[in-house]
Amino acid sequence: MNLRPDPLPTAGILETETKTVKLFSTVKRLGDNALQDVRVKENDFSSRIPEEILLQIFRVALPPSWNAYFARTLPPFPPTIWSSDFETKLTIIQVCKRWYRIGLEFLYESVSLNSIGQLAVFVVALESRPHLGSLVRCLEICYWVPRGYRTLHDTELMKALALCPRLTYFAFNPQLVSPSETPFEISLPKFPPITNLDLREITHLDICDWVPYQSTLPALLYLSSTLQSLSVALPIDYGADHPTLVFPRVHSLRLCMSEESVHSGPYWSFPNLQQLHLFHTPRLGNRWRFSSAAKVFLANHGRSLRTLSLGKADDNERLKKLLRHCPNLQHLTIAEHWLPSKHDCCHETLQTLHIQRESKRRHCGFNKWKTMFPSLRSGHYVDTSYDLFPSLPAIDGIAEQLDYNLPSGSYLEFLHIVRYDPEYQPVVTQSDLDDSDTSDSETDSDSDSSHSDSSSTEGGDDWEIESVSDIRVYG
């Protein structure tokens, strides 16, 4: 499935200002004063369904809420973020007052901020309508900070977190490549000191490998007793007097390794770990070191695992040795080259196998997989992009049916086999940034002095339309 964002604006500043007026007018029409109650027949059953039930019906009817990012977080900021359910949500809230109230809940429950301008607009929306903050369950930070916007990030992000008291999922994942590979002066956003806030309801924490470990350590210590899932990089240095972090409730761990990563040893403890996703950074030069580090980690935490996903490595004969540390494993996702050349028994209890296809070479069939995994019930080839969606459910289907049609409109369609180019490396170039022109008035400002005014008005219109999780309410 080809994913493509809405057409990027090519107009100049004057045309952008004209669009701003039109966008404000459109959003205002969504307010309570403009929406009308729809008169339905008395025998219309839908009018008697409680709003709580309608909300659950919409949740089932909507496709999975996953996002597609386009790594465009520098000025000019991106005009849109694509989501599989965005258009449907916008349609629902424009039907009537009743559906509008229902739609607000799942519009605000998951918020992804892909530019620094969206952060300021998001805070203004929560401050003007405080009850909306209680709807936010998931907040994801995906932007890098351009020159002149650090103060905005430091102050507004803390405000946003304070205004979301029921937050359960917090992700800190800048989506851009290394600053050294970009033509602009940008910096990694500072990880917020969440220990200063009452955020113990957070049960899922996702931190990308760019963030220094020492800046996240207070948050890990603060949330260690409540976290249920964690995504973090294996540190390269633990520092002096590192406390022992015990995560008694963590059942899902996504761990990124670099060439300098040091095994957690006595510093981390996961007594109830069920799912483990091990992968390495693109900067890892020696993949053999990855398989060695994976072996050490599994030796300490593999006994309770039910689900395991392994990134690329250069030693396919190590798979059998790794799986020895996971006697209760049932689901395995591996890169294609992990399969051993000899079809000997690798694991007795494995039931589901996902293999990330990387080449066009002839693949072994299900019967040969059964010789390696006698208890295997289902096996699939998937695209390497499956690695980007660690939280998606397993693919169910007939075991022998390796090539099949995937349901249209679902994430499975996106995971269908596509041509893979091992030489491709995404790089943001000057031409990529130029073709988006000026979508936010804030992009023309290079200092923190204009944050409070321009961000809340001129930047707001883009946030109303582009965000997958937010549409400003003017009542």
N/C terminus separation: 39 Å
Strand order, main sheet: write it out: 3-4-6-8-9-11-13-14-15-16-17
What is the tally of beta strands? 17
The proportion of residues forming helix, as a percent range, comes to 25-40%
- The number of distinct helices, counting runs of at least 4 residues, comes to 14
**Rg over C-alpha atoms, rounded to the nearest angstrom:** 24 Å
Mean pLDDT: 67
Largest sheet: 11 strands, parallel
Shape: globular
InterPro entries: LRR_dom_sf
Protein name: F-box domain-containing protein
If you had to describe this structure to a student in words, what would you say it looks like?
This protein has helices at 13-28, 51-61, 86-93, 97-108, 116-128, 150-162, 213-223, 287-301, 319-323, 366-372, 411-414, 430-434, 451-457, 460-466, and strands spanning 67-68, 82-83, 110-113, 138-141, 145-146, 169-172, 186-187, 204-207, 229-233, 245-246, 252-257, 268-269, 275-280, 307-310, 331-335, 352-356, 378-382. With 475 residues, the chain is an alpha/beta fold. The chain has a domain at 251-257 and 271-421. The strands form 4 sheets. It has an 11-stranded parallel sheet. Strand 3, helix 5 (116-128) and strand 4 form a beta-alpha-beta unit. Helix 3 runs antiparallel to helix 4 (97-108). The longest helix has 16 residues, at 13-28. The chain starts with 12 loop residues before the first helix and ends in a 9-residue tail after the last helix.
